[in-house]
Amino acid sequence: MWEYTDKVKDHFLNPRNVGVIKDADGVGEVGSLACGDALTLYFKLDEKGRIAEARFQTFGCASAIASSSALTEMIKGKTLEEAQQITNDDIASFLGGLPKEKMHCSVMGFDALKKAIANYRGEKLPVHEGTIVCECFDVSDLEIKKAVQDHHLATIEEVTNFTKAGGGCGKCHEKIQEIINETLLLHKVGPHKTKKLSNIQKIKLIEQTLEDVIRPALKKDHGDIELVDVSGNIVTVKLLGTCALCSKSPVTLKNFVESKLKELVSHDILLEEVKE
Asked: How far apart are CA 252 and CA 258, in angstroms?
C-alpha cells in the first residue's frame, strides 16, 4: 500500500477546479483510457495575458487526480512563460511528495500543460519525438532518455514509475536498459551484487559513482558534493553550493545520493552528512 501525504489526500478527496472551460484559450489532452490514465487541461487568460482560470477532467488514480488539481492551482495567476517553468517535480513537491510508483501522474500534468500552451499558440507538437520503444503505452526513446536525465533514473522500474514504459508486456525492457546505460554511462559504474568488494574497491567505486552520476546531476542546480570519509558501509559526504543551503537537502541525500550509492555500489551503504 502506498503512503500519501495529507496534501495528496486533500487534493484527491477535495479536488480543485474540476470541470470544463467551454471557451478555453488553451486545451491539452494526454493519456488514454486504454492505458488507465487520461487528463484534459483547460485554461483561460485574462486581459493581461495571465491564467485567470484553469480546470481539468481526469480519469485515473488518487495521484492523477491530486496532481491535476495541484497543477491548476499552481498555474493560476501566472503568465504562460511562468507556467512553462513548472516541472513535474514541482507538482510533486507542491503535494508534499508522491510515491515513486506514482510519479508518472505528475508527468502527465506537466505534459498536458505543455500541450495546452502549444494549442493556444497554434503550435503543433509532434505526435511522437523519437522512436516508439514501449508499444503498450506509446513511449518513445527520447521520452525515456529525457526522464532518465531529468530524474536521475537508473533502473527499468524507475523508468516505468516515471513514464509507464515497460509496465505492460515487458518486451521493451532490454531496449529501456540500453537507453539507461547509454544515458547514464552505467557501463562504467554498476551494482556489484554478487562480488564482495574490498575497502579500496568500494572507495574507488563510490568516488566513480559520485563523479559520473551524482555530481553532474547536482551541478545542474549549481550544487556539488564532496566525499569526506568511508568507514565500512558508512559514507560521509558534504554538500556544496546551492545544495548546502537548500531546505530539501535531506531529501536529496536520502532519495537521490544514498539511493544511487546503494544501487550502484552496495545495498548496505548508509549516508551521513557533515556540515560546516
From this structure: 9
